[in-house]
Please model this.
Amino acid sequence: MSVIHHVIDELKLNVSNIEGVPDSFSSEVYKLTLAGGKNVYVKVPYNKDKLYREFQVLEALKGMIPVPEVLDIWYGDDTMTGALLLSAIQGTPCTGELDEQLSYQIGMYLAMLHEVTTPGYGYHVASGFKDLDPNDWRIYIRSNFEKWEEPCKEILDPRLVEKCMLHFDELFSALPDPDGPCMVHMDYRPGNILVNGNRVAGIIDFESARGGSSEVDFTKVNRYLWEVDSGTKRPFMEGYQSIRPILDLERVLPLYDLYDAFASIVWCRNRGVDKNQAFLQENVNTLSTLVGY
Model:
């Protein structure tokens, strides 16, 4: 039995049509049309940590920002991690040109997300919220980067990796104090922002969300919005600052560009270099540019 048919049976759904959702890189996602004509989505996370995390984060954000409603959850069995049944949001991924109004709203909703406080720096697990040990965002960031060094050497030229490690140390020493702990998305990019006309209809894909420092969420905004269309930055910043102050991005963005690219190299290694070759090369290019390699 296929994954989606297994989930349909477990959730006791009466389905008239099943469509796979493309460009879902970490989890399997399906659009279902139920017998009565209603559309819903099923998300099968990569592991149980992501299942619990997304479920609890979506429950916590309900009514605060536009996110999918969790209609049901299946906690899995010996063969599968489980699945979420999610409401459909009337919108499409924000992959086209952005006007000022839409850029403003994207910034405003990110700030609204960051206004949601968390008990500490950490993440949701089955039993609730688990603090980092130690509960220090800067130590967490440095520890992650250092543990990625050896996996990256399996793929990259060791000389490039060494340059990255040295550059990280330089940038890390210049960081301002973190803010938070607050809710951070960890993958806030156009593909996870649904729009309807020139308004934001919803934010999706919270499987990596956690309690962190707001600075981490500007990395992909910078790469996939501002660097693509510099005209989106001013209204985005205005929208964000209408809700809360913003950290000194000039000091944090270079480090997080490096951090995110390093993490993405490891992701490609773990999920398959051959089938993620384009994404791998994008991040190799980013690293090379950042360290002048």
About this structure: The domain at 93-291 is CATH 3.90.1200.10 (Aminoglycoside 3'-phosphotransferase; Chain: A, domain 2).
